[in-house]
Amino acid sequence: ALLGALLGKLRATSVPADDLSTGALPKLSVALPICTDEVDNIFARAALADAAAIGGWELCNISTSAEAAAEALARKYPRMPDIDTVDVLIVDVGAASTWVAAVRLCAEAAEGWTAEVLTENSDSGLGCVDFDAVIFDHFSEVVRAKYGEPVAAGSRAGLRLLDGCERLRKLLSTMPEAATTVENLVEGVDVPLTLSRDELASSCASLYERLRAVIDRVLAHEGLQPFASVEASGGGTRMPSVQAVMSEALSASAVGAALGDVKFGAKLDDASTALGAAFLGKVRHSALAASAATPAAGDAPAPAEADVAAALTFCGLLAGDEL
User: Fold this and answer.
1) Which spans are transmembrane here (predicted)?
2) H helices of 15-127, where?
């Protein structure tokens, strides 16, 4: 219901009044965030379909984040002469989740590419906030040992410390050792904090292992050809330690060995997933509209209308009955 209200507000503020007056529903295309499992994914799609109906949108496309990013990459990747297909690895370490995908770009007759996600893998509980949490636990213990009281998570002091941990992590992306000060952390005392890249690496070793496992599962997929490039996306990939894990995984694989020491690409910015979802929505809606323009045999409904009705009915049944 809350998401439906938000989508309704978005519709009221972003769709021109003249378009709303026609009675036709505006089109909505969405890239889903990472889900923990297939059941969670089905629930998310059903909830999104309900929210779109509440907000007054026609849901024309639901894609994964990898599919949307791949579509955006196809619009940005430079065309190379005499090359029909290239495989690209995308690694996205975001605020709260991580996904890795192998994408194949196929040359079109005109300039440009079409994108196909060959395989993807993810960890819905691995992101920048998890690194911040490890740093928080480290300094909470340091404060307890020095000042005699720990910093409680969720308290005002805890939020200030967490903000300081985030600053340290970001600073370590550009320097080997970082320092910051958290004001009024303990009984009006401003507490200085320092952290080095080596300390961060040792504290977050288990997180790097999880990241390596996600990358390795994608690199082990059969049928991949040697990657032409690696695209790093998400704020977490700016961390040198994360880039080192990516390089180690590539060097240990047959399809990525040539790129182990190569600088990673940065063609996918923060808006690329949303941009790719919009492109996919336009392409799929146009395909459905073209199918609907061709009369179906007999009295059967047009294929596009039947497909859309079936998809929305399926989501509605899941949301109303099983879930």
Assistant:
1) none
2) 17-21, 38-55, 65-76
Strands 98-107 and 113-123: antiparallel
Q: Within this chain, do residues 240 and 92 fall inside the same structural domain, yes or no?
A: yes
Torsion of CA 147, 150, 153, 159, to 10 degrees: 0
Paired tokens of 278: 């919009």
Model confidence at 71, in pLDDT bands (50, 70, 90)?
very high
**pLDDT tens-digit readout, 191-218:** 999 999 999 999 999 999 999 999 999 9
Q: How many separate domains does the chain show?
A: 3
Q: Which domain holds residue 285?
A: 2-65+272-322
3-state secondary structure of 103: strand
Q: What are phi and psi of 322, to 5 degrees?
A: -80, -35
Cα 247 from chain centroid (whole Å): 20
Q: How many C-beta neighbours within 10 Å does residue 241 have?
A: 20
